[in-house]
Amino acid sequence: MIKLSSLTIGKSAVIREFEKSDIHIKLMEMGCVPGETIKVEKVAPLGDPICIIVAGYNLSLRKTEADHIWVEEIAV
């Protein structure tokens, strides 16, 4: 497993778990729930924010938020 923040553009992964913090509830409300498939769509030039596709829509996350999400990359 790796952190979402280290996933590269165009790669897909499945959310496995969160680091326990206050932000995990906010992330779950935005559709980032364990078992959900995500894809990294874009990364800003300086690496922050990260645009992902989750639950059928685009979501931008700060790198600090993405650091709380552990994912398992999907081999294509």
Which features would summarize this protein structure in a list?
single chain, 76 residues, mainly beta, SH3 type barrels, six-stranded antiparallel sheet, 6 strands, Transcriptional_repressor_C, FeoA_core_dom, transition metal ion binding, FeoA, Ferrous iron transport protein A
Can you walk me through this structure?
This protein is mainly beta and 76 residues long. The protein has one domain: Ferrous iron transport protein A (FeoA) (SH3 type barrels), CATH 2.30.30. The protein has two helices and six strands. A six-stranded antiparallel beta sheet has the order 1-6-2-3-4-5. Strand 4 and strand 5 form a beta hairpin. The protein is globular and about 30 Å long. The model has no long low-confidence stretch (mean pLDDT 88). This is Ferrous iron transport protein A. Pfam families: FeoA (PF04023). GO terms for molecular function: transition metal ion binding. Keywords: Iron. InterPro entries: Fe-transptr_FeoA-like (IPR007167), FeoA (IPR052713), FeoA_core_dom (IPR038157), Transcriptional_repressor_C (IPR008988).
